[in-house]
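User: Could you go from structure to sequence for me? I need the amino acid at each position, not a summary. Structure tokens:
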């Protein structure tokens, strides 16, 4: 199955399909009209292209704050046994095409998937050659490449990379998202707060948890934050970006069907509802095979890949409305036009911030982290 939304439309009677989609996706999204040029590009370059608008009520005292968001998912281009430099160059070329498509669609902000500039090789536990993909957040080749595109197209770009810290900090590696201004300048970076230790996701072999907290970046097109991949499983992580003022939170990811697909459509959507902001869930796509076999510590036979990255990138609004997802099997660009005024409107309607009771949980968590904490358990 390539697309759940399309399958519902195709296999259910029209009225039943309409009701099923309302229940699963919320209010219907408006389809955006795009140029023939970009549709032709998507056909010739073989990527999925979807574009929607999520509407909200007009206000009397605030003008609309319309932003077009681009979410890009892609597979690797060359086999993983090709030289590092060739793999990187091929990925740069592919991303250049997809970002050009985002420009043709009028996108103001574009976010790429987790570690877009390399194979997701952390399953192997091998250090070479995979650590050679790590690069400096400001002066690395991928950031320089994207700074040029950001300035050329007047768009903010969020780039999730494997970062090599500078010599002062021991040249250690981090899982990092770089934020580039539409002026082409580096704004700052965020790092992965939660590192998986599940299945073949052996990422703690390469890098540790972030020490940067939950930064929010004020751009020309809104206040944005990045909750990298596994952090989506932690509600507190989402919450802190909201507390710090985020209006759009991106979740660049790399996750496989056998592990997380039933959770995928729920977590980022739930976060948008609970925190009254827009979420953009982006997942890598394709199956990546590595030169050497590796085991999963589960008694099963060694293998050279750890499953299919299922794409399915989507956007959710603060009211729970979500777009259909991109393809499960091919590269794609999802364009979503939103009005950031919805964030405040939903806060006013549902009162989640007003009823959040942070002081209650702050006190409880402060007790829970103590070594002698017993828990509030009442027995018969």
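Assistant: Here is the amino acid at each position, in order:
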């Amino acid at each position: 199955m390539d697309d759940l939304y399309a399958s519902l439309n195709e296999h259910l009677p029209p009225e039943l399909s309409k009701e099923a989609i309302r229940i699963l996706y919320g209010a219907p999204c408006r389809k955006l009209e795009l140029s023939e040029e970009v549709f032709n590009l998507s056909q010739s370059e073989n990527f999925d292209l979807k574009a929607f608008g999520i509407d909200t009520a007009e206000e009397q005292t605030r003008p609309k704050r319309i932003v077009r968001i681009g979410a890009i998912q892609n597979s690797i281009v060359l086999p993983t046994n090709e030289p590092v430099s060739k793999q990187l160059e091929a990925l740069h070329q592919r991303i250049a095409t997809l970002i050009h498509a985002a420009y043709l669609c009028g996108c103001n902000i574009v976010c790429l998937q987790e570690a877009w500039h390399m194979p997701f090789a952390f399953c192997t536990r091998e250090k070479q050659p995979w650590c050679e993909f790590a690069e400096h957040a400001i002066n690395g080749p991928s950031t320089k490449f994207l700074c040029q595109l950001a300035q050329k197209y007047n768009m903010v770009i969020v780039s999730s990379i494997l970062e090599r810290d500078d010599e002062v900090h021991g040249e250690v590696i981090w899982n990092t998202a770089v934020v580039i201004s539409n002026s082409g300048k580096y704004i700052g970076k965020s790092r992965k707060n939660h590192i998986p230790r599940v299945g073949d996701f052996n990422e703690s072999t390469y890098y540790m948890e972030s020490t940067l907290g939950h930064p929010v970046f004020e751009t020309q097109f809104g206040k944005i934050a990045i909750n990298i991949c596994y952090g989506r499983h932690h509600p507190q992580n989402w919450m802190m970006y909201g507390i710090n003022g985020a209006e759009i939170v991106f979740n660049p990811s790399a996750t496989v069907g056998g592990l997380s697909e039933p959770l995928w459509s729920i977590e980022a959507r739930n976060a948008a509802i609970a925190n009254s902001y827009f979420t953009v869930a982006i997942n890598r796509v394709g199956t990546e095979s590595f030169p050497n076999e590796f085991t999963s510590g589960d008694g099963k036979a060694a293998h050279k890949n750890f499953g299919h990255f299922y794409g399915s990138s989507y956007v959710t609004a603060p009211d729970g409305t979500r777009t259909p997802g991109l393809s499960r099997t091919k590269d794609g660009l999802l364009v979503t036009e939103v009005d950031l005024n919805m964030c405040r409107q939903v806060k006013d309607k549902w009162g989640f911030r007003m009823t959040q009771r942070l002081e209650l949980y702050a006190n409880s968590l402060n007790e829970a982290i103590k070594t002698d904490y017993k828990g509030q358990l009442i027995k018969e």
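One structural detail worth keeping in mind: The chain has a mean pLDDT of 96.
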